[in-house]
Amino acid sequence: MTALTPGARRILDVASELFYAHGIHAVGVDTIAAESGVTKRTLYDRFGSKDALVAAYLAARDERWRARVTAAVEAENEPVRRALAPFAVLAEWVSEAPSRGCAFVNAFAELDEPDHPARAVIEDEKRWLRALFAAELARAGVADPDALALQLLVLHEGALVTHAVAAAPGAPAATEGAARLLVAAALS
């Protein structure tokens, strides 16, 4: 993400909080501008459109998520722990603030136009996580890392949904245990 002016950073921060808390369609540019202390013109000058602001919100969230996951993976030496590191990060991530689930899944549900600029950000985030699982599983010696990577992605995403929708705070930890069993079975 390119460097933002202080005003653009304030707009993005406010929009990020509002989009995540209330949903993309429920939050208008008037509200974002007012809460940011800028004019709508400034918002449009900095981001061009609400659609571009939504894409920037998701890109910033993706950047933070990837940095945390990458750091957790790189902190591990043991291959299976590296492959499962995203689950540990997920448990930390959802415990830090009230969770409405996955911002990417929530946005995907709201953005039904395939050419919306945020859709590419959403799809890339999910592809990245699946590829990370596959690479680390291959490093661990799993015979079919792509198939298991898909299973781990499904578990990971399911943990987010279960944590938020079913109000099950233990879902990320339980899912990590299930992922560990799948990896162990693939290695035996």
TrEMBL record:
Residues 28-47 bind DNA. Keywords: DNA-binding, Transcription, Transcription regulation. InterPro entries: Homeodomain-like_sf, HTH_TetR, Tet_transcr_reg_TetR-rel_C_sf. The keyword Transcription regulation applies. Residues 5-65 form the HTH tetR-type domain. Pfam families: TetR_N. It comes from the Bacteria. This is TetR/AcrR family transcriptional regulator. It comes from Actinomycetospora rhizophila.
